[in-house]
Amino acid sequence: MAYLTLNKSHLRHNYEYLDRIFKKHDIDWAIVTKLLCGNEDFLKEVVNLGIKEVCDSRIFNLAKIKKVAPDMQTVYIKPPAMGEVEDVIRYADVSFNSESATIKLLSEEAQRQGKVHRVTIMIELGDLREGIMGENLIEFYEKIFELPNIEIVAIGSNLNCLHGVMPSEDKLIQLSLYKQLVEAKFNKKIQWITGGTSVVLPLLFRQQIPSGINHFRIGETLYFGVDLFEEKPIKAMKPDVLRLFTQIIEITKKPKVPIGQLAANPSGDVFEVNEEDYGKESYRAILDIGTLDISVEYLIPDDEDINIVNASSDMLVVDLGDKSPNYKVGDEISFQLKYMGALSLLNSDYIEKRVIE
């Protein structure tokens, strides 16, 4: 049976490493938990780290966080749909916003629930996902800063999430200047510039973060210990907070080239024959996981001698080479994961999730 593990000691190691860095630079930070898909056992491990603020993009997950840790500050990190405003006020202490009409509804709902809802205004810096255009910031702020039961506590931005636009010192300076403009125009203090995500973290290592950027939201680097600028592990961090374990359900020596007329498989792929493989055989293992659970491009075998062949909906085929393998039916084969692969597994009800030491 395939299962996914969260290594709590590796998670704490990565958390403490990041926390030291942020404290050194006098930067507040929050953990992004959307990867965990509301899994309560995994969320408890995040809460136990001692973090004071968590971010998520699903109301369902924020409700789970409030159940696990009622006093935790929760942040909804996408502009709310109008139909979910009631739940946003109920489960999110802060929300990211880019539409004044939505903030007006949040204001009205916050009054009904007797709460003060805190808001981060998202600003477009070039990746063309959520965010108002900078030239509209003053007009936007004028519409919302006097709304009852709404407190604007931050401005922020996202980069690299849609079109792959990378962060830069210049873009972060631009974000800082927008904050200064609003504060000067309205004589209002904005507490945070939440300009940092995992992809921005390497700029902090290089001393390229403007002093005004005082808040980060970290998910991927916490769980995978990766430098997203260079796409390589950070040496001081653990890359395997999350790991997949699969079980071998068949091992057989088979031809390397399919036998018969080739057409598209159910995924629409057509196998391309390597002519050098004609007449050759290798040991192939079938594992109890498939594309329903994860795309093969997101799997990294721990055993470097294993090559992934392909997967069908419920089975993954790997090549063990032409020599008699050291594996047998029932043995486990483990994989490290890329972010989107882990997200798929955590969202699957078919994969057991375990916390390990």
From TrEMBL:
<protein>
    <submittedName>
        <fullName>Amino acid racemase</fullName>
    </submittedName>
</protein>
<dbReference type="InterPro" id="IPR029066">
    <property type="entry name" value="PLP-binding_barrel"/>
</dbReference>
<dbReference type="GO" id="GO:0030170">
    <property type="term" value="F:pyridoxal phosphate binding"/>
</dbReference>
<dbReference type="GO" id="GO:0008784">
    <property type="term" value="F:alanine racemase activity"/>
</dbReference>
<dbReference type="Pfam" id="PF01168">
    <property type="entry name" value="Ala_racemase_N"/>
</dbReference>
<feature type="domain" description="Alanine racemase N-terminal">
    <location>
        <begin position="7"/>
        <end position="224"/>
    </location>
</feature>
<keyword id="KW-0663">Pyridoxal phosphate</keyword>
<dbReference type="InterPro" id="IPR001608">
    <property type="entry name" value="Ala_racemase_N"/>
</dbReference>
<dbReference type="InterPro" id="IPR000821">
    <property type="entry name" value="Ala_racemase"/>
</dbReference>
<dbReference type="GO" id="GO:0005829">
    <property type="term" value="C:cytosol"/>
</dbReference>
<keyword id="KW-0413">Isomerase</keyword>
